[in-house]
Amino acid sequence: MSNLMGSRRQKSVDDGEQSLIRPPSGDSGGDLLDQDASTPGFIYVLAFFSALGGFLFGYDTGVVSGAMLLLKKEMNLNTLWQELLVSSTVGAAALSALTGGSLNGWLGRRICILMASFIFSAGGIILSLAPDKVVLLVGRIIVGLGIGIASMTVPVYIAEVSPPHQRGQLVTINSLFVTGGQFIASVIDGAFSYLSHDGWRYMLGLSVVPAVLQFIGFFFLPESPRWLLQKGRSQEARQVLSKIRGGQNVDVEYDAIRTSIEEEEKEMGGGGLVILRILRHGPTRRALIVGCGLQMFQQLSGINTVMYYSATILQMAGVRDDKQAIWMAAATSATNFVFTLVGVWLVERVGRRKLTLGSLIGTSLSLTLLAVGFLLSAQNSPPVTLHPVDSQNSTCRLYGYCEFCMLDPDCGFCYRENGTRVYEASCVPANPASTDHAIWGRCSNQTEAADSPIWAYNYCPTSYSWIVMMGLILYLAFFAPGMGPMPWTVNSEIYPLWARSTGNACSAGVNWMFNVVVSLTFLHVAEFLTYYGAFFMYSGLVVLGLVFVQGCLPETQGLQLEEIENLFAGQLCSCGASSPNDNHNVQYIRQGLEFSPAHYGAVESDSAIAYITVSTASRC
């Protein structure tokens, strides 16, 4: 099989040189690698409506952070129910993402996106009308089913319709919409936090608006031409390809896609489960490991812990007021959005690999700063100075400092303050019906009076909350340009067409499964390891991710989708090494661009264009 693949690649190079190099009088519209060619506006319309799926994903992860602060009061949610409402969406998304591969292959990208937006709309309506926490949980699960299908379909659709020189930017726009959704959600959280009752209904229900907009938009948008060709609908595929390329000559690109599909079907035999064919075929197996590894480390870096619980983390750092915590969480979402814009700008300039490595280094350092902020808060935790008689004989009476009192979910810290000085502090049992006050004592019936004691549940008063805030902002500033979008961008590129849907479904499923693990365990991990211990742990996991990316992720920038499989022809984690016969591809450039001898194997010119045979073996 490897000999057949090698001969196919060499034949593609030879055919490409014969068919694309032509005198200036020839039609150059077929030069699919001309990076200076204008991009039709229709591509941006496709990217916009597709990326609304990313917006829905981002809105959900962002809105639940502020809504949870209101829900836990109105519905008296304990820690388990809070984690269930967050992680149920993620768990449902993991299941639907895994099945999304089969749906994509059967129904196509367009129908799957329509299906996802319809499911999300239904879930949003249920959430806005939920009378109790059980119905709320059902709505969250339905929303998760829609998000999972969209999360693996949208990057694939955008990658398949994009020109090669803009593929990275256009796929990254999906991640930009994710962060934009998180920012809009945090602003809506802040706006509706002032309602005395049911503010969370508006927060969760407004997600219906972009879902309906995407559903209507995709009624008028075409299917992916690559999927159409794979299904034998060649005439329709040519028409769609011509439309999205703005009426340019698409003969060369069309023939390249068709030939690639035909050769892949011959090589793979066309039978059996796709996942088994992926695992049996070396290059796709290695690509799957890299793709799933990237998605795993994205979640193990703690991003959705930060987004789901950003308002709660700020309260843990000592920000007392719910509204203030929500608006400060909005500032973190704004940071995420702005720096994802930086990623859109950088992805086609520095490449996927360098952007991911730089992002991981900064993410690890900022998580360490976040942990140091919590560590300083713990080391300077105010002492318990009052020990009232505890008729219930609870464990709360045993704690001597706020830090240990706060880590016990059954206890809270009751104190007075004078400026920055804490006095008359005690650790007493929290009311299990509502942790907003103590079950007995002076903090059991709080008022807004200036001289009333302050009840702190899940946080301690501290002067180091600014370090935590700085750590959060730096974390997002480093994570957003690289590890935020790159796992989705890379996964949309590295699989051949026959394996693309299933490969993306598997990697998206891994992302969602680790999302479940991290979001479901964060509050419990914080109880056992303390908050600073949890973030030190995430920092260490990011270092492992850095080692993985350094050794295993090749650079895919500028390559045709049909060429990228060559990067995985060598051994696993050899960083794109391949055999001597598989390490060349032809790229076509305008005259006037300079290349040193180290960058090319052969240069020819034909008065209008020049071509270079570039090695793809050392894309590390």
In short:
This protein is mostly helical and 620 residues long. It has helices spanning 2-20, 41-74, 79-107, 109-129, 133-161, 167-192, 199-205, 208-217, 225-230, 234-244, 251-268, 274-280, 282-300, 303-308, 310-316, 322-350, 352-379, 402-407, 465-479, 486-491, 497-552, and strands at 411-418, 421-429, 454-456, 584-590, 603-605, 609-615. The strands form 2 sheets. A 3-stranded antiparallel beta sheet has the order 2-1-3. A 3-stranded antiparallel beta sheet has the order 4-6-5, with helices on one face.
Task: Describe the 3D structure.
The structure is a single chain. The protein is mostly helical. Helices cover 63% and strands 6% of the residues. The chain has a three-stranded antiparallel sheet with strand order 2-1-3. The chain has a three-stranded antiparallel sheet with strand order 4-6-5, with helices on one face. A hairpin with a 3-residue loop joins strand 5 and strand 6 (609-615). Helix 6 runs antiparallel to helix 16 (322-350) and helix 17 packs across helix 21 (497-552). The longest helix is centred in the C-terminal third of the chain and has 56 residues, at 497-552. The radius of gyration is 27 Å and the shape is elongated. Residues 1-37 and 576-617 have low confidence and may be disordered.
